[in-house]
Each structure stands twice: as C-alpha cells, then as structure tokens.
Design brief:
The complex is a heterodimer of chains A (138) and B (371). Chain A starts with a strand and ends with a helix. Helix content of chain A is 44%, strand content 17%. In chain A, strand 3, helix 3 and strand 4 form a beta-alpha-beta unit. Helices cover 50% and strands 19% of the residues of chain B. In chain B, helix 2 runs parallel beside helix 3 and helix 7 packs parallel to helix 8. The longest helix of chain B has 61 residues. The chains are: A alpha/beta (138), B alpha/beta (371). At the A-B interface, helix 1 and helix 4 of A face helix 5, helix 6 and helix 8 of B.
Chain lengths: 138, 371
C-alpha cells in the first residue's frame, strides 16, 4: 500500500526539493506550508509519517506541533522526522543527542539540506519501525 | 533634558566655587556646586553630571573617597581633582583611583577652561564608545538572525533542489555531468558549513555545554573526527597517520562538540598541507592531561599571524595572509576546548608546518566502580 506522508514546512522551495525525491520513490506526499494548516491536516487525515520543520512562522512553531502530537493519543504513534536548518543551535541545546528527548518518542532529526539517499533511508526506517511497534503492542 | 554639559564642582572654599562658576558662565555649560563631599555625592546622583571637579583637601569626607565613590557608581563620569598642595604624589594617587586629570591651586581662568574643555571631550568619547559597543552587540545579534534566515535558508533550498534534480536525472547523467553536479554541490556545501560556523560563533553559548558533560574516552571524539575528514584528506591527497594510545584516558566532556573542534583543526591541517604530504594525529597521556596533537608539514603560519589564529572573523584583521583562512573554525575550536577547561597551543614555522596541541584535563577515576 502506498504510504502517505505529510510535510509541514513554510519554505515552498525547500519543500519542492524533498517532495520530488519522495514522489519519485513512490510515496504519496501532501504539503502544508503553514503550521496551523498542517495541524488541521494531521487531525483530519491519516499519515504514515510526518516530516516537520522546526523554525516556522514566529519561531519554533514546529516544536509546538511536536508537543501537541505527543499529547494526542492517536497521533502519538505516528513517526516524525524533524528536518531543520538549525542543527547547529539545536545540537548545542541537546549535545550528543541527535534526537530531541522532549519531542515525540519516535522522532529523528536531520539537517537541511538532506541527501536523497539519507532522506529515503530515514523515511522508510521510521515507517517500518512504527509498523513493527503496531504489530507487537507493548 | 537639554544637551548642555553638566559640571559639578565640589570644594569647601566658597571662593573657588564662585570663581569657577563665574569662569564657566557664558560657556554654555550647566554648573552646580557642593561645599562638601557628602553633598557632592548626593548631587552626583540627582544631577548626573558629565564632569566633576573634586577638591582633594576638604573637611568631612576626603576628596579621594568622593572620587572613588563616583568612580564606582558611574565610571563614565569624568573626574578632575583640585589639589591645593600640588604634589605629584597626591595627583598620581588620584589618577590611579580613576581621576582623569588634576588641577593645581591656584589656577588661572584659562587653565580651568582648558581642562574643562578637555575633560568634556573625554566624556563625549567615553559615551560614544559605549554607544558604539552597544551598537556592535546589537549588530552581532541581528547579524546572526539575518545570516540564518536570509542566507542559510535559501542556500539550503538551492542545495535541496539540486539534490532532487540530480536524483531524478541520475540515469541520464554521464560522468562529465555528474562531475559538474558534484562540483556545484561541494561548493554550496562549503558555503553552508561556513554559515554554520558563523552562526556557532555568534549565537551559541558554548558554556552551556557543561550542563551535559559525561565521561568519554578521548579516543571516541578523535576517531569520529578522523572519520569525518577522511574524504577531505583523500581529495587533497593527504595521508593521515594516527597514533592513539590505548591508555590515553577519559575526559569529562561533550563528545559531539569536541569532535567538531578536532574536525576544525584537522580540516585546517589538511587544507594547508601540500599534495602528498602527511598529517600526524597523536593522542597521548600527559600526566593529569590528555594531549591531542595534530601536526602538518604544510605551508605554516608566520610569526605575526600566529597569535591571531584563534580570533573569530568579527575581530579586526590587519593581515590577510594565511591566518585569514584559519579564522572561524579555530575560534570555535578554542571556545569548545576552553569550555572543557582545556587549552590549545600552536607552534608553527613558515614553510615547514604547524602543530596544534589540544590539552584537556584527564578525568581521574580513583574508584573503578562499575555498578
């Protein structure tokens, strides 16, 4: 079955550069350029993975979305791949931890720009891990 | 508030107060007087003078103490002492305590006018310097956000689309075209790395690292850095020779940033090495220190540039030779190493090569507790 992905990122040019890679790998990709719009899409549709930008709008609105997801019993299962242009800063806030412990449990963080192979590898690994978790409920 | 300069004269002799006020009358300055130290200090607070004349010999609070208090509460206020016993000693002592100048009694009106003018110029310079410094800080902060949003984001979008373009075209690209893609990607990547270094220098409080220090074997960040620069070394045809002592020890620190510090220094060593030469990386046990040395046989750094290699890019740089290229990376490395209570030393000779030595305090584990 085709996997559905949602990208929330307010930079349309950047999004076009990852969307086309994901498109050609056979994913069904939807895009929200606005955090609010993205949250609405998450609440009304089902996705296998979320690609989330951190620095949007007035600040780190991506973090707000990640926090909301974690609180939502349905959405917290969905894997989140954080794509950020601010690794330098973020890495320093959480040194040695590529993954922000306070986001959703299954997230991973990559830096913009992201090489196609790495992007596809992370996306498929996160989706697979989520499926395995669902198959074996803890 | 009017922009006339405010002058306060503290002296117990009414004659002095009157004549000084008279001399300055018509000069366009605002003048207030105080007959003793305590009154004077109170007025300093209310009146916020630009310049204060203080008689050194007064009953009550001594002039030198008045001077000290003014200097402590607002060092930007210019102070001049009036001394009745024009001994060098008392004047020098006052200057040591922060007085800008001294005026020996008796003085001619012209002397008083001159010293007033010079002191007010001094005050103006002090205020301008402070304003400029503040402006510089502000610019630095704004620059960080401008760099990140206006430069980094578009460049990332360009690179991302290039990645996508190459990915989609991959089957149609011959070696020549692939090579062109590679060149573009490499140059954009270099620019992104440079921007990241700027951002690091400008906007990150490296001392926050301390909050997350853990015990790590020194070999871990070194090995990670070596992996990181492998490609660069291959591209530049530089051989990396390593010698990592098994007992080189552990440190208390942050592995990610330390390996970044090593990458910066290693990267420079490779960058300034000659084709086909070697870079030697050694990790040694130095008593209560762990020593990481990185030695190249490259072009070297001139003695004039050597003291400046760790200065960040925003410092004034008057020589634009080799040191210019070292710039930001080394500044960041030093900040990181210093956040670990370590230090970096450098030795270099033009035409022979450079050795950087990173000293880090070794973690002393007196109990080998494993539980």
């Amino acid at each position: 079955m085709t996997k559905r992905l949602l990208i929330i990122d307010d930079d349309p040019d950047f999004v076009s550069g990852i969307k086309s890679i994901l498109d050609s790998a056979g994913y069904e990709v939807e895009v929200a350029h606005d955090p609010k719009e993205g949250l609405k899409a998450l609440q009304t549709h089902q996705y296998d993975l979320l690609l989330l930008d951190i620095m949007m709008g007035r600040g780190a609105e991506g973090v707000m979305i990640a926090r909301k997801l974690r609180k939502d019993p349905k959405l917290r299962e969905m894997p989140v791949l954080i794509i950020t242009g601010m690794r330098q800063q973020i890495a320093f806030l959480f040194p040695g931890e590529p993954i922000h412990p306070r986001f959703v449990e299954v997230d991973e963080l990559v830096e913009k720009p992201i090489e196609p192979d790495l992007l596809l590898e992370k996306v498929s690994a996160l989706i697979q891990a989520a499926e395995e978790r669902r198959a074996v409920p803890s | 508030m009017d922009d006339r300069s405010r002058i306060l004269i503290i002296d117990d002799e009414e004659v002095i107060l009157d004549s000084c006020t008279q001399i300055l009358d018509g000069s366009g300055h605002h003048v207030r007087t105080a007959p003793d130290g305590m009154t004077g200090l109170k007025l300093v607070e209310e009146y916020q003078p630009d310049l204060v004349f203080i008689d050194l010999k007064m009953p009550g609070l001594p002039g030198i103490e008045v001077l000290e208090e003014i200097n402590e509460s607002d060092p930007t206020i210019v102070t001049v002492v009036i001394t009745g016993f024009a001994t060098v000693g008392s004047a020098v002592e006052a200057m040591k305590k922060g007085a800008y100048d001294f005026l020996p009694k008796p003085f001619a009106p012209e002397e008083f006018r001159l010293i007033t003018r010079r002191s007010l110029e001094r005050r103006k310079l002090i205020l301008e310097t402070i304003a400029l410094r503040r402006e510089k800080e502000l610019l630095r902060e704004q620059f960080a956000s401008i760099v990140s949003h206006e430069l980094k984001a578009p460049l990332s979008a360009v690179q991302q689309n290039l990645f996508a373009f190459e990915f989609e075209m991959s089957k149609m690209l011959d070696d020549d075209k692939k090579d062109k893609f590679q060149r573009i990607k490499t140059r954009i990547d270099d620019m992104l790395k440079l921007i990241n270094s700027w951002l690091r220098v400008i906007s990150v409080d490296i001392n926050k690292l301390r909050e997350n220090f853990t015990e790590i074997p020194i070999s871990v960040p070194v090995t990670k850095a070596l992996e990181n620069i492998e490609q660069l070394a291959a591209r530049k045809n530089v051989e990396i020779v390593t010698s990592i002592g098994k007992t080189s020890g552990s440190i208390n620190g942050d592995g990610v940033s330390l390996s970044e510090a090593f990458v910066n220094i290693l990267g420079n060593a490779i960058k300034y090495s000659h084709d086909g030469s070697k870079v030697v990386v050694k990790v040694e046990n130095g008593g209560d220190e762990v020593l990481v040395s990185i030695k190249d046989n490259g072009i070297g750094i001139s003695p004039e540039d050597l003291p400046h290699v760790f200065e960040g890019f925003y410092r004034g740089r008057n020589s634009q030779s080799v040191a210019a290229g070292h710039g930001i990376g080394l500044a960041v490395s030093r900040q990181i190493v210093e956040a670990h209570d370590g230090s970096i030393t450098v030795e270099s000779e033009l035409g022979t090569g450079t050795t950087f030595i990173i000293h880090l305090p070794k973690l002393i584990t007196n109990q080998s507790s494993t539980d």
